[in-house]
Amino acid sequence: MSENQFEKHILCIGAGYVGGPTMAMIAAKCPQYKVTIVDINAEKIQAWQTDDLPIYEPELLDVVKKARGRNLFFSTEIDENIKKADIIFVSVNTPTKTFGEGAGKSADLQYWEKTARNILAASETDKIIVEKSTLPVRTASAMERIVNSNNKGIRFDVVSNPEFLAEGTAVADLEKPDRVLIGSQETAEGKKARQEIVDIYANWVPRERIITSNIWSSELSKLVANAFLAQRISSINSISALCETTEADINEVANAIGKDHRIGSNFLNASVGFGGSCFKKDILNLVYICESYGLTEVARYWENVVKINEYQEDRFVRNINKALFNTIANKRITLFGFAFKANTGDTRESPGIYITKKLIEEHAHVVINDPKALDNARKDLAGLEENLEFEIDPYKATHDAHAIALVTEWELYKTLDYEKIFSAMIKPAFIFDGRNILDHQKLYEIGFNVYPIGKAALTHF
Ligand code: UDX
Ligand code: ADP
User: Fold this and answer.
1) What one-character DSSP code corresponds to residue 97?
2) What is the pLDDT of residues 201-215, one digit of tens each?
3) pLDDT reported for residue 371
4) Would you report the helix, strand and coil content of the chain in percent, each value rounded to 5?
5) For a 10 Å CB count at each end of the chain, is N or C smaller?
6) What proportion of the chain, given as a percentage, has pLDDT over 70?
7) Residues with Cβ < 8 Å from 8, sequence gap 6 or more?
8) CATH number of the domain at 249-461, please?
């Protein structure tokens, strides 16, 4: 198709974990639209044009290949593409602020504001701007003020369309979302802009799953969805500590409570703690917003979800230290997994980072094994190389190790030859299953001292 045969020109600014997969899905499902993704990072844009995509996400390459070169394009020409676009999705990063007021809690909006100003400077026609990145409540109004502060006679409508995909299942989540949420101002123009975004998703998402709301509800719902999900994990993790000191078993407790349909069985897996770019950031953001409106009790309530997560990571390391006779100095400890969850190479806020640093503080020698996250692990742990090894082969990684600490629930760890691993480890050999995915009884029978999460340890002494 030539340029002007496309029904709409959609642009996405930010080719990361959110922008890349979301736009690839829109392009694959809607050949009538031209979808362009731009980023300031030229290396990333280059990688999106190869078979070695810049992010690891199951089945994503198939979706990209379906549309790439047909109606899906990648570019670093930001201004030129802004000019041609009818609809601009913004999915640049909004990390937690590291300086000044709100440091450590509120979102750093400098990339967002820069993008808004870019859009304003380059535009020659009316546009709909879609907030895809998670943003604090009321960001849209600030953005609308910036972009509409022009005297070019151009109209901008800002719409909120938060992304709920989870990494590792992004393609399935985008193909069959539980819901798509689109918020706008309740004015005639706002509703018209909202309808344009509804029309995009209606190409493959059943209409009853596309929810519309006012813009503030939409922005807040994203933060609250993540806060509720994280809260479930902190709830089950807090109970796992209690299980370890009683004779209760966290899996049995989770199973029993999850059968109550009001509670439900998903997201009740006790673990080393939650990671990922969203949960901690979004909760801290919620906390900051509550504080800034004087809602101190509400802020403290949600802050504790993050505190329990830190407690869980800390407890895991303390358990390792205690089991290894209160000294891990010069002991070789192998991490099975470093990604924040299985099926992704992403390590942002991964418990693996904290655990490794804590083990190194105790002078342990840490070996990191992960099928997809070693490159990111090297970046996260830069400067600590003296006490570290990165090893892609799990058998080599555990050779002469005193202990294994399983951090990520990769399937491959369930199918390893643990007899072979045990025979090459220093005795007594320990395994700490931070995800409860291994066959603990079998490992115990092989000779390991086994420490699951939220259940009694199986030890030979
Ligand atoms: C999350 C939300 O699920 C998604 O809707 C939102 O758009 C972005 O944030 P993501 O961070 O990709 O997605 O992964 P998720 O599957 O939610 O897992 C987050 C963390 O919680 C991971 O570290 C995971 O291992 C951990 N987790 C999850 C548990 O420890 N136990 C569980 O039962 C579930
Ligand atoms: P997310 O998980 O929210 O998608 P990522 O960090 O994976 O976050 O992706 C955000 C992307 O946005 C990065 O690739 C970054 O280079 C890009 N980005 C940040 N600021 C700008 C900007 N002003 N213009 C274009 N791209 C930007």
Assistant:
1) P
2) 999 999 999 999 999
3) 97
4) 45, 15, 40
5) C
6) 99
7) 32, 33, 34, 86, 87, 200
8) 3.40.50.720
**361 near 333, Cβ under 8 Å?**
no
30 is catalytic: no
What are the backbone dihedrals phi and psi of residue 90, each rounded to the nearest 5 degrees, phi first? -115, 115
> HSE (CB half, 13 Å, CA atoms) of 280?
19
* Residues 7-33: tens digit of each pLDDT: 999 999 999 999 999 999 999 999 999
Q: Look at the alpha carbons of 280, 283, 289, 295 in this order and tell me if their dihedral is positive or negative.
A: negative
Query: Does 349 have pLDDT greater than 90?
Result: yes
pLDDT value of residue 107: 74
Which listed residue (12, 243, 278, 290) is catalytic? 278
Predicted local distance difference test score (pLDDT) of residue 1:
60
163 lines ligand 1 (CB under 6 A): yes
User: What is the bridge-based pairing of β-strands 156-160 and 127-131?
Assistant: parallel
Per DSSP, the three-state class of 332 is strand
- Does position 140 have pLDDT exceeding 80, yes or no? no
Ligand 2 centroid – CA 173 distance (Å): 21
Strands, E, within 76-171: which ranges?
A: 87-90, 127-131, 156-160
Superfamily holding 3-205: NAD(P)-binding Rossmann-like Domain (3.40.50.720)
Residue 11 has what pLDDT? 98
Name beta bridge partners: 298: none
pLDDT at 109: 79
State which ligand 2 atom lies nearest to the alpha carbon of 18: 4
Which residue is closest in CA terms to ligand 1's atom 16?
166
Residues 6+ positions from 378 with CB-CB distance below 8 Å: 390
CB 184 within 8 A of CB 157: yes
